[in-house]
Amino acid sequence: MTAEYIIFIETPVSLKQRYGEMASAAHLVPPLGLISLAAVVREAGYTTAIIDAPALGLSSEQVVHEIEQRKPRYVGLTAATVGFRNTAEMARQIKERLPEVVTILGGVHATAMPNQSLTENPQFDIIVVGEGEDTILDLLDALERQRPLSSVPGIAIRQAEAVFLTPPRPLIKDLDRLPFPAWDLVPDLTTHYRPAPHILRRLPSTTISTSRGCFGQCTFCDRSVFGNKCRAFSAEYLLRMLKYLISRYGLKDVWIGDDLFVMFRSRLRTFCELVISEKLDLTWGCCARVGMLKPELLTLMKKAGCHEIAFGIESGNQAMLNMLKKDVTLEAIARDLSMTRQAGLKTMGTFMIGLPNETRETMQNSIAFAKKIDLNMLQLSFFTPFPGCEIAENIQEYGTFEPDYSKMNVFGNIVFVPHGLTRSDLITYYKKFYREFYIRPKTIITFIREAESIRELFGFSGGVRAVLKLAFHRAKDIY
Fold it and tell me: What is each CA distance from 462 to 23, 137, 151, 343, in whole angstroms?
């Protein structure tokens, strides 16, 4: 067996590629999918490693050279849509230098487009479709024992000059059976990764995942990897994991990136009670879906160290929300934000502009709504019809779409322009949105009054500087 039986690679994609001019306010987090996969294969007895190119500042050529020197049997790759071309080119170079290496691709983009990904990229040998932990173990066993790959559920392979998808693999019911992610296989959490300024409370800090799946039907979201069935690690598992992170890395803050962290109310209540009873020196923030919060639960979250909740708002126009199948009302959004602020927690809202059927009036509605509700911060992106989402299937009916994966980063590029609007319109309202929200006494005074440390104050000011740079630069200098 080689020194590393399988090496997982996080594609070299810069923050500039991912976030455009918002790179200075962006975050760099550990590759959550890869550290989970690596932990599983290691527990099964395989030697493994991770090359996190963004964290290490490595180019594709440097990664390829590293693979060439270490000569693993298998290489596992993943890529977001914006980095897919980088991954494909890197895999091509690996196969050129080490033809015998089996290249295995996974992730959201590959799961959404397995046929195209294999057909157009012969350098990929196998695609893992969907949730990967059980599939990668079954796949490695089949490869070693020379079992037919068609017997492995949850993959895409080539057969007789065509792409063949095996039956889907059942989702993991008991997430607690998975080992802790292999944080030790990536660069040090405290020095090589950085949280976004708007979610940072204290250092060291990192991002974790505690549940999978989403029952929502939002037309702009792809749920092909984790599906609509919602599953979660237990509160006891989370407590053990956090204790490990505190002990190993001195962690003081975490961001819980789950779509539906607050959905599992019993688990959330138990988690908060455990954190309080164990007296963990930990602050944390999370995401929430409107309609899932109650005042008493928010009070408990605050007592357990929660400092901020992020809400996916998307638009301040009800017709736009209905079109996106958000299944929320503007009144419910305003109510939940007010309730969150009354509990002493900060609020962040994410919005999109340039949606299908968007008009100048609906964009102005969003600006007015953001200023009206109880928001501390907002994050604005350009609507992007990613592969796998419902609305991407007939996006050309709604406007002009440029299907260039390398530009699909939501913050730095415009790839979709709705009928009746121009790129210039979208840029104008993008800048106007940020200016009108952040350059007003309410936003500035509230943050200064509620900031609990100099670090938090500087973090907020750094994020604001990044968005104001966008808000006042000439459009041609940015886009």
Answer: 11, 43, 52, 26
Q: Which two tokens stand for residue 357?
A: 């059927």
Helix H or strand E segment including 368:
helix 360-372
Fold matches, 6-165 and 195-478: no
DSSP conformation class of 161 = T
Tokens of 324: 């996106």
Predicted TM-score (pTM) of the model is 0.90
At 183, the amino acid letter reads W
Of the candidates 87, 45, 81, 43, the residue with the CA atom closest to the CA atom of residue 64: 87
pLDDT at 479: 47
Q: Which residue has the tokens 């952040």?
A: 438
What whole-number distance in Å separates Cα of residue 463 and Cα of residue 199? 10
State the CB neighbour count (10 A cutoff) for residue 352. 21
- SS3 of 253, please? strand
The string of pLDDT tens digits covering residues 313-352 is 999 999 999 999 999 999 999 999 999 999 999 999 999 9
Instruction: Assess if CATH 3.80.30.20 describes domain 195-478.
Output: yes
Q: How far is CA 354 from CA 113, 195, 406, 426, 433, in A?
A: 24, 27, 19, 6, 12
Q: Is residue 161 exposed (0-12), middle (13-18) or buried (19+ Cβ within 10 Å)? A: exposed
Q: In this structure, which amino acid lies at residue 46?
A: Y
Tens-place pLDDT, residues 264-291: 999 999 999 999 999 999 999 999 999 9
Task: Give the tens place of pLDDT for each residue, 456-476.
Answer: 555 555 556 656 665 565 444
Strands 205-208 and 377-382 come out as unpaired
Quote the CATH superfamily of domain 6-165.
Response regulator (3.40.50.2300)
Neighbours of 73 (CB within 10 A): 19
**Listed residue (449, 448, 315, 423) closest to 378, CA to CA:** 315
The domains of the chain are located at 6-165, 195-478
Compute the distance between CA of residue 110 and CA of residue 125 in angstroms, rounded to an integer: 12
Report the C-alpha gap between 159 and 163 in whole angstroms: 6
- Encoded tokens for 107: 């992730």
- CB 255 within 8 Å of CB 284: yes
Calpha distance 327→162 (Å, rounded): 40
pLDDT tens track for 401-441:
998 888 888 777 899 999 999 999 999 999 999 999 998 88
Structural tokens at position 24: 């200075």
